[in-house]
Design a protein that fits this description.
227 residues; mainly alpha; 79% helix
């Protein structure tokens, strides 16, 4: 007699699956339970860590705001001490932000060389986000406009002064100012003209570049090339 009844086949398949499950459970039941417990504990630990990290970052944020308040109140030494604590024990991005702000306060206290060294170090440090690196290098470059040479400024930001870089306008500005201050009016004209010719240059940067171009032209020290 041939069995063609679909229900009979389903029952046989279910029995087979049931036997297989009982076998798997008898042999691996403890491992399955252990794995399930580990998954639950792992999920709980990850959620706990995120909660802890969020609280720690929030606390660092409060400390950073307090340090900025001290700086605004001209309590520079206290602000630097608070920022140093954040650099050492802070969480999230706050240690890096504290280093940046501390460099600015160093410059305000007259230690421009120390501030430039700190910012330049951030600009070269691996693991620092590229945007923060570039911002640090720009701040160092603007300080060097006042205290350094054109070559020192160029070492910080010349590679940022390219069309694809979002910081190109400020980089060109720093380079132009350094060249102007150093008496290299031809090079200054080159950088200021690049700013003016870039339709995406911020208006204030473009206006200053045009003003300095006019001064260079009026001085006759760097005549406009023909053709």
């Amino acid at each position: 007699m041939a069995f063609n009844d679909d229900s009979f086949i389903r029952e046989v398949n279910e029995e087979l699956r049931s036997d297989q499950l009982r076998f798997v459970w008898r042999r691996f039941g403890r491992l399955i339970i252990a794995a399930a417990v580990l998954i639950v504990l792992g999920t709980a630990a990850y959620s706990g860590y995120r909660y802890w990290a969020g609280n720690q970052a929030g606390a660092s944020g409060d400390q950073f705001i307090a340090a900025l308040t001290l700086a605004d109140q001209n309590k520079t030494d206290q602000a630097l001490a608070a920022l140093a604590t954040i650099e050492k024990d802070g969480h999230g991005s706050y240690p890096l932000l504290a280093r940046m702000r501390a460099a600015t306060l160093q410059a305000q206290k007259g230690d421009t060389a120390g501030a430039i060294a700190a910012l330049s170090a951030i600009g070269k440090e691996s693991g620092v986000p590229a945007a923060i690196q570039d911002a640090a290098r720009l701040r160092a470059a603007y300080m060097l406009v006042e205290t350094g040479t054109y070559d020192q400024v160029a070492a910080e930001v010349q590679e940022l002064a390219v069309p694809a870089n979002a910081f190109r306008h400020s980089a060109r500005d720093a380079l132009g100012l350094a060249a102007y201050k150093g008496g290299d009016f031809a090079k200054a004209r080159q950088w200021f003209q690049a700013i003016v010719d870039d339709p995406e240059s911020p208006r204030n940067v473009s206006n200053r570049a045009q003003m300095l171009l006019d001064l260079i032209t009026a001085s006759g020290k760097a005549p406009v090339a023909n053709g």
